[in-house]
Amino acid sequence: MNGSPSSLLSATRVLEFLNLERCLLKTVPIFATASNLLTMKYLILSKNEISKLDYHATFINLRNLETLNLAENVLEQISEDVFKPLRKLKVLVLRGNKITHLPENLFQNMKSLANIDLSHNLIGSVPVNAFRGYHNMEYHVK
Fold it and tell me: What is the pTM (predicted TM-score) of this model?
């Protein structure tokens, strides 16, 4: 799927669920975050080879996304503003990656976020303010 054209889903107008699990992806494909996919609520990118999320506009078109699953990739680097456009995100799964560091503002302004799974990573410490303001969030960090 790494060689798929960026216009792969361009004719799609309504898509709520996209599962790209086990597609050998090295990056988040442009076709999976295109501007015509505003209705998407669930994006599954687990069990791929994605190593970094460093472009701030990666998810800019997915304003209605509620679940993002990036489990079991090889994520090491996450830009602190990559999730900012995802204001309706409720579930974020980052389990089973190689994350060592969480930017302090990574989850800032994500008021809908209710469940985050960071288990089975290499995180040594969590910034003091990483989850400030989240009183009912369920999070898993091991």
Answer: 0.91
